[in-house]
Amino acid sequence: MTIADLKKKFIEIYGGTEEGIRIFTSPGRVNLIGEHTDYNGGYVFPAALTLSSTVIARPRADRMMNMIATDLGIQVEGSLDRLDEYKALKWGNYQYGVADELQKAGYRLIGCDLLYHDTVPLGAGLSSSAAIEVATAVTLVSLGNTAFNVERPIDMIEMALISQKAENNYVGVNCGIMDQFASAMGKKDHAIFLNCRDLSYKHVPLNLKGYSIVIANTNKKRGLADSKYNERRSQCEAAFEILNKFLPEATCLGEISMDDFNKHKHKIKDETIRKRAEHVVAEDDRVLRSAEALNNDDIALFGKYMIASHESLRDLYEVTGVELDTLVEEALKVDGCAGSRMTGAGFGGCTVSIVREDAVGRFIDEVGNGYTARTGLAPSFYISEVGDGGRELK
Ligand code: GLA
């Protein structure tokens, strides 16, 4: 749908004219490498997509925040004064959560009518939720700033942090900062090298020298992913608590080197907990090496780290599953595929592969056929373009 179509649709639903309508957008992301490291104070290397959540917005005179989704046909109405009442909503809870955290942080909001148009596939590990959260944060703050004559520019890192808080506190998923940060701070044709401990970051040009990023969706619904995610997170905390006794200087797993880990890992008696920590420490190291490989235009080496990352997520962190493993195995059979791995939280969702441009068509055919033959599921493919972060569309 074009912006003109969306405005027309908005007026059909909410009435009025084009006057006062504003448009905001924020993207999903693909993580190239650095999985389950963010909440351990480690490094991640995501890139914002051009798949996004777009919000058509118009302020209201009262305190109602009304929302509709173009694709789902869902309509919800809520008051900015009763935000603790909407936590159980299946759709709309992310947005009310963001409004709640914004108000708690001191932002003055006004009522509004909102129409959401989301092109990030839902629940596929491409951060559809972060896209909605950050788009909502930018929308609400922009409308409030205009209504109350606030001139301060929007702090996008703060929008990311508030969106993450909404997901932690309102939705109840203990996610890290990667997705919201990538959505808020993305830059066209760049990946983001982010240190999740202090949020220092660098935009790295994504010059893949004749290779494309291909995303493949397992199209497997993610069951129980949230509770397993929270479980992995507490296992990492348990591992750190033990290691920290012997490495008192470290403040998180992300600060522990491979050498130190190897010296002390036998102190973690529970094998599962030890495996979780080993993944995190090694993955963190791989992010640093991958960024260096990319900097040296060494796509083959970058691909090798991606493969090692997937194996570690499969064997040590145990968040892949048969669908993601099959997609990666089929991808690696294709001549011209430099590397492939799951991306996002896991338990279903998507893989990301680096594929030589001239091999992309063949890759899609062969991986699609191989995957369907082995799982009975039809995958979807997206040739991803790397886009900008959250903003108003003028
Ligand atoms: C989800 C979370 C992120 C991150 C990834 C795993 O996408 O929202 O914070 O932990 O999983 O790397």
Strands in their spatial order, largest beta sheet? 5-4-6-3-1-13
Bound molecules: alpha-D-galactopyranose
Reported by name, the CATH topology of the largest domain is: Ribosomal Protein S5, domain 2
Give the biggest beta sheet.
6 strands, mixed
Number of helices: 11
Task: Report strand %.
Answer: 15-25%
Rounded to the nearest angstrom, the radius of gyration is 21 Å
Task: Indicate how many domains the architecture comprises.
Answer: 2
Task: Give the integer mean of the pLDDT values.
Answer: 96
Decide which structural class fits the backbone. Answer: alpha+beta
CATH secondary-structure class of the largest domain: Alpha Beta
The succession of helices and strands, N to C, reads: HEEEEEHEHHHEEEHHHHHEEHEE
- What is the strand tally? 13
Structure description:
- The chain is α+β, with helices and mostly antiparallel strands.
- The protein has two domains: 3-205 and 387-393, 2-Layer Sandwich (Ribosomal Protein S5, domain 2); 211-382, 2-Layer Sandwich (Alpha-Beta Plaits).
- Helices cover 42% and strands 21% of the residues.
- The protein is built from eleven helices and 13 strands.
- The chain has helices spanning 3-14, 93-104, 128-147, 156-171, 178-185, 225-246, 258-264, 271-295, 299-315, 322-333, 360-375; strands at residues 22-31, 43-44, 46-59, 64-69, 75-79, 112-118, 190-195, 200-205, 211-217, 337-343, 350-356, 380-383, 391-393.
- A six-stranded mixed beta sheet has the order 5-4-6-3-1-13.
- Strand 4 (64-69) and strand 5 form a beta hairpin.
- Helix 3 (128-147) packs across helix 4 (156-171).
- The protein is globular and about 65 Å long.
- 47% of the residues are buried.
- Alpha-D-galactopyranose binds at residues 35-36, 38-39, 175-176, 178-179, 344-345.
